[in-house]
Write the C-alpha cells for this entry.
Amino acid sequence: MGSAELWVAVAFVIFIGLIGWKGAFSGIVRSLDSRGERIRAELEEARRLREEAQKLVAEYQRRQREAEEEAEAIITTAKAEAERLATEAKAKLEDMIARRTRMAEQKIAQAEAQAVADVRTAAAEVAATAAEGLLKAQVVGQTADRLLDAAVRDVKSKLN
C-alpha cells in the first residue's frame, strides 16, 4: 500500500500544480486582455486625434486660401487705385501745363500789345514833334498855333 499513497501524493501534487497553473494562466489572460483593451483605447484615441488633426489642417488650409484671396483682392484694389491716381495726376499735370501755357501766351500777347502801343505812342510823338517843327517853320502866327493844336489833338485821339 505504500505505492498507493505515493500515487495519491503524486496526483495531489499534480492537482495542486494544475490549480496553480490555471490561476496563473487566468492572471496572464486577464493581464493580456487588459493590455489589449488599453491598446484598443489608445488606438481609438489616436484615430480620433488624427481625425481632429485632419479637420484642423483642412480649416487652416481654408483660412490660408481665404487669406491669399483677400491679399490678392487688396493687391488688385491697390493697383487699380494707383493707376487711377496716376491717371488723375497726369490729367491734372496736363491741365496745369495747358493753363500755364495759356497764361504765358496771354502775357506775351499783352506784352506785344503794350509794346506796339508804346511804339505807336512814341512814333506819334515823334511825328507830332516833327510836324510841329515843320509847321512852325512854314506857318507862323495864330494860324500855326491853331493848326498845330488841332493836329496834336487829332493824332492823340487816333492813338488812344
User: Anything to note?
Assistant: The chain has two helices and no strands. The two ends are 175 Å apart (CA to CA). The CA atoms of residues 135 and 144 lie 7 Å apart.
